[in-house]
Amino acid sequence: MTNTTNASFTHLETMNVLTSTLPNDLFQEITGDIADLSKDSEPYNDRLIGHIQEEYSLDHSIEKVSSFVTALANAWSESNPGYINGTQDNQQEFYIEGMWVNKQRKYEFNPIHDHSGDLSFVIWMNIPYNLADEENYFPLVSKGQTSYTSKFCFVYTDTLGKIKQLPVPVDKSFEGTIVMFPASLHHTVYPFYTSDDYRISISGNIKRKDLIK
């Protein structure tokens, strides 16, 4: 038998995804801002890849969420040392470059894409379906295989170069949940099938700027 008492292991680099929850008062305030939008509001479609008819600017709401979101960006940076330089030595600070709302209908989807900036975030505001109903919509998916119906997925290559998907099982319990991740991390949103209501999410990009001395 081979002696492995002197064996050691090297951990290969990876990234973390941050998950948190919007404070209820902030969630209610942003819900109100979304309710005030109409089809005449400023569209965001020409800056996005989503196959979604209704995507609108929420830049007017950035100030309301800024302190909460940038605090999370600092927490993400601290948990991933070396990925973003400048913010931990008080030379730069995070700011939200842009923010928009996706009002996604049945059958609409977001193909695989990434974002600009250093970090990106998604906040789920309204989930109109039951996840079990979505997963059962295609009952003939091979047993033991992952159902991607309606799911938000991170798409990445592992250390062997294989393409992987990490599905996030978004359901009604995710309303008010925010995830934050590197802007260059690819992700996609699969269509849902069992509701005629909107699936509403907010997305935004975070960059750095030099502190004024």
Molecular structure report:
This protein is α+β, with helices and mostly antiparallel strands and 213 residues long. It has helices spanning 24-35, 62-79, 131-135; strands spanning 18-21, 54-57, 92-104, 110-113, 119-126, 152-157, 163-168, 177-182, 186-189, 199-210. A six-stranded antiparallel β-sheet has the order 1-8-5-10-3-2. Strands 4-9-6-7 form a four-stranded antiparallel β-sheet, with no helix packed on it. The protein has one domain (21-210): q2cbj1_9rhob like domain (Jelly Rolls, Sandwich). It is 16% helix and 31% strand. The N and C termini lie far apart (64 Å).
Could you list some keywords that capture this structure?
3 helices, single chain, alpha+beta, Jelly Rolls, 31% strand, six-stranded antiparallel β-sheet, four-stranded antiparallel β-sheet, 213 residues
Strand content: 25-35%
> What is the distance, rounded to the nearest whole angstrom, between the alpha carbons of the first and last residues?
64 Å
Radius of gyration: 19 Å
Unreliable spans: none
Structural class: alpha+beta
How confident is the prediction overall: mean pLDDT?
Answer: 92
CATH topology: Jelly Rolls
Largest sheet entry: 6 strands, antiparallel
Q: Give the SSE string.
A: EHEHEEEHEEEEE
Shape: globular
Strand order of the largest sheet: 1-8-5-10-3-2
Q: What is the CATH H-level superfamily?
A: q2cbj1_9rhob like domain
* Strand elements, count: 10
Assign the CATH class.
Mainly Beta
Number of domains: 1
Helix and strand topology:
Blueprint lengths: L17 E4 L2 H12 L18 E4 L4 H18 L12 E13 L5 E4 L5 E8 L4 H5 L16 E6 L5 E6 L8 E6 L3 E4 L9 E12 L3
Antiparallel strand pairs: 1-8, 2-3, 3-10, 4-9, 5-8, 5-10, 6-7, 6-9
